[in-house]
Design goal:
Length: 136
């Protein structure tokens, strides 16, 4: 019986964070990480956080992912007490910006090419990072 070799097709991720001037947002991308591998057939975790200096705008922030074919907008969906404590210096478990994290699984096939990550606020999207994938 002959064993078939399974070809693994994947990409190595590179992250180009854009310098955005005149923004009230602070953000960080926990995942994907620089130089992480992306394999077709898997999902990619897009996780991080975003804060704004205006607590009135904060509930209107959405994660924005733009691929060659699709654009996605996801609401913030993760409480990040670690971020509120470290960045805002507040140990308050009921802080109005506690829900500042995002954590989504995206199909690798949908983002196998380069894609962009940003934030949409009140219907206006801004790109904050280009995620570049190189086939390996």
């Amino acid at each position: 019986m002959e064993l078939q070799k399974k070809q693994i097709i994947g990409s190595l991720i590179s992250i180009n964070r854009l310098e955005i001037k005149n923004t009230e947002l602070r953000w960080y991308l926990d995942s994907p990480l620089e130089e992480s591998l992306l394999y077709l057939g898997n999902t990619v975790t897009v996780r991080g956080w975003v804060l704004t200096s205006d607590s009135q705008i904060h509930p209107h922030i959405y994660l924005y992912i733009k691929t060659k074919l699709f654009t996605y907008c996801y609401p913030l969906n993760e409480n990040r007490k670690d971020v509120v404590e470290a960045i805002l210096k507040s140990p308050d478990n009921n802080h109005p910006m506690l829900l500042c994290g995002f954590n989504y699984e995206v199909s690798a096939e949908e983002i196998c090419d380069d894609f962009q990550i940003g934030f949409e606020i009140k219907g206006e999207a801004s790109i904050f990072a280009n995620i570049i994938s190189r086939t390996i």
